[in-house]
Amino acid sequence: MIVVFGGNGQLGRELSRAAASRGVSLRALSHQEADIADGAAVAAAQTQYKPSIVVNAAAYTKVDRAEIEIENARSGNETGPAVLAGACATAGIPMVHVSTDYVFDGAKEGAYLESDPVYPVNVYGRTKAAGEDAVRGELKHHIILRTAWVYSEFGQNFLKTILRLAETRDELRIVADQHGSPTSAAEIAEAILHIAPLLVHDPGLSGTYHFTAHGETTWYGFASRAIGIAASFTGRNPLVIPIATADYPTPAKRPANSVLDCRLFAQTFGFLPRHWTEAVDATTRVLVASRAESHVA
Ligand SMILES: NC(=O)c1ccc[n+]([C@@H]2O[C@H](COP(=O)([O-])OP(=O)(O)OC[C@H]3O[C@@H](n4cnc5c(N)ncnc54)[C@H](OP(=O)(O)O)[C@@H]3O)[C@@H](O)[C@H]2O)c1
After folding, report:
1. 1-49: per-residue pLDDT in tens?
2. pLDDT tens readout for residues 171-201
């Protein structure tokens, strides 16, 4: 059985959905059911479910709030992964740990390789980088999967915010000088379910990999794409205006370039993600249809 921590987040819920549709045995535990920084709760979950592999989808993901809630960010992103990895080492099972493009500073020209040094520029990125180190230190048999710009039908994310704002605003100003790859949580879930059995059966499999959607864009490109697709259903087509990061100050600094080179993951595991536009179009259609239904209801 696969046990997922952080089961109520975007990725956690997509993992549950993907496992159910494939008939994979998976138990997703919410934050309330098991805090990953609580050794006793983690041990109890392992005793109860006896997983063959653990997926850590839990994280403190509020990038701006992390600048002031430093202890919470540390607990979710650094202490928690260390505790989970230690428990997996004791139980002799592997773990997939999910990390982020925000471990990089964004100064590189071109896509980041797994071997590039990390230089996080905010508290979230620093705690996630420390979490990666903790996993590497505690547990040999692990895969660290760095992903980026995650969205899904569930939870809070940029795509849902943009579609909501597009219903009432005539104009949206969106940052156009940060580059990355919007990635569907559903696709990350598929990738994790693809690698989980390989990891269980190969004790030598270990390491850090990048996994995002194919292709790259900016937040402006992401928003424009989603609004264009939504407009064909809703008729609402607000003007999207590109702005600079400097025109939209946020508490946490963000990397200007967080495009990840994902060739190693594809070569190693034979799993190819879709282009970001294809995946964004699909989720946008689902979200627009469900918003239309909720307005009727
Ligand atoms: N979202 C992004 O854009 C993005 C980008 C790059 C990488 N990632 C990484 O992708 C992974 C999945 O992210 P996501 O978007 O699915 O995040 P999410 O929607 O914010 O879900 C994270 C879940 O973890 C739970 N959690 C937080 N602290 C916990 C703890 N100490 N113990 C147990 N559960 C805890 C949260 O519960 P509460 O809400 O109750 O606290 C939440 O349900 C994370 O590792 C994240 O760092 C995300």
Report:
1. 999 999 999 999 999 999 999 999 999 999 999 999 999 999 999 999 9
2. 999 999 999 999 999 999 999 999 999 999 9
- CA 39–ligand 1 middle distance (angstroms): 19
Among candidate residues 60, 112, 124, 151, the one labeled active-site is 124
State the pTM of this model. Answer: 0.96
Could you identify the atom of ligand 1 that is nearest to the CA of residue 149? 3
CA angle 122, 127, 131 (to 5 degrees): 150
Enumerate residues lining ligand 1, CB below 6 A: 5-6, 8-11, 31, 35-37, 57-61, 75-76, 80, 98, 100-101, 128, 147-150, 155, 185
Q: Average pLDDT of 139-163?
A: 97
Look up 151 and say whether it is catalytic: no
**Domains of the chain: residue spans and CATH:** 2-157+181-215+259-274 (3.40.50.720)
User: Within 13 A of 218's CA, how many CA atoms are on the CB side?
Assistant: 15
When pLDDT is averaged across residues 243-248 and rounded to a whole number, the result is 96
